[in-house]
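lol ok so funny story. i was supposed to be doing the assay writeup but got distracted and ended up predicting the structure for this chain instead. priorities right. anyway since i did it might as well share w the group, maybe its usefull for someone
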Amino acid sequence: MSTAISAGQGRAGRRIADLVAALLPPGILLATGLLVRARLIDDGFVLLNLVSLLLSLLVLFYAHVGWHAQLHDATLLTVRTLTGRRTVDLARLTRVGRVEVVSQGPTDDRLILTDTHGVRVILSKLRGGRDTVDAAVRRALLHAPADAGVTVSGRAVERLGLDAEMQRPRSRLKAGRRIPETLIGFAPLLSLPVFAVPALALTLAGFLLADPS
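and the output, tada:
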């Protein structure tokens, strides 16, 4: 039996995914520290704290990645995710971002959509049909109310071709963060210091917690 399509579907799934991602680092810290302290596992497991933030980031990304995206009633976009089906209301978007994962092959280029219901999805294309995610999102943004105030990142503006709209004196869109294209390829390298310091701090805390003295 099919489930009716309605705005706000998948909000609970997003909250669960965000909660799991937030609890992963402290959970790994406590679990490894206490288990080592009880001599149930080897102290080498404390080194898992070095990658706990990376695991958290992977959960945040892949839990929101959508596939089999379909457009209903011109504004309701439904996708399947690891936490179940989600429906984004394109007519009530609050934030549009863009994530680009650089690899040896083609760049994995996706849009991040968040609406007023708290539903968030990361996707790149629609399933079947002639329409595209870009066209549907761009159309929704250009037809948004004058006071919509949707925040659109600089990279998303480039992908969606919204430069003219952003330059209007009273645009219905707000400019988000803008990352120069020249820095995209260096993003993994530039992010190392951001993750290295807290990862080392978590690992040190894990060894201190595991020390019974």
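The chain has a mean pLDDT of 85. Strands lie at 67-72, 76-81, 84-89, 93-101, 108-115, 120-123, 150-152, 173-175.
back to the writeup now i swear
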